[in-house]
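== Folding the chain ==

***
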Amino acid sequence: MKKRLISAIVALIIAVPLVYFGGIPFYLLALVLGLIAIKEILDLIEKDDYLIRMISYVNFLFLVGSSIVQNDLSKILDRNVLGIVFLIYGVLFLLKHKSNFKVEKFFCLIGITLFLSTSFSTLIVIRNMSLLYFIYIFLITIMTDTFAHSIGTLFGRHKINEISPNKSWEGCLGGAFFGTLISVLFYLIVINQDINILLLIFITLFLSIVGQLGDLFFSQIKRQYGIKDFSNLMPGHGGILDRFDSIIFVTLAFIYFINFL
């Protein structure tokens, strides 16, 4: 518990000022976190081939860097940049024809790179649009996770499935309820009180549920590979993907609702 608290305090001391001021400091934070996230996945599927790992890092930086320059949600995955990324991985596949770099791993690397680069690019663009929007989506995930854990621990009786044995329906419903309630109040008080309240509740509840699905998605990956955490970067908390599992899904879903908020 002590390690967990200290890790959280250190992370907040580093992250909060960078998030608040935005700009280049925040870009660097997002890039570093994204690279660590890529590393955590590569540690599962490609531990030893440093050429594959380096190219994956470069492609991630290329995609996110392009999004930073564009700073436009509609151009996060620019087709010109995507073409270059696909060609780089294609050449790598040909160069590795004598190794165990099978076609499944080729498409797996493309998928991982696109998935995480899109997520972190979207996070950057949202922060550039509005610090309050950024806080809103993080508040949804934090409150949902916090209350899901608390209520599940106290009242959880019906387990969801074997993917995450500690999660219960009671915890999920309680997390969704309080995560939605607190985030809706924040939006109405701090961001915009004139919004259609029913629309806001629907969007916030949807994002809360999506965040919990993200948690289960990454739990399934850990279960398949037989690991407890993606890394031990943050003692008591795990790695970047252990902390960003929900927010990654919420961020990707949020972009569909921006025009309604």
In short: The two ends are 38 Å apart (CA to CA). The chain has two domains: 1-129, 130-261. The mean pLDDT is 88.
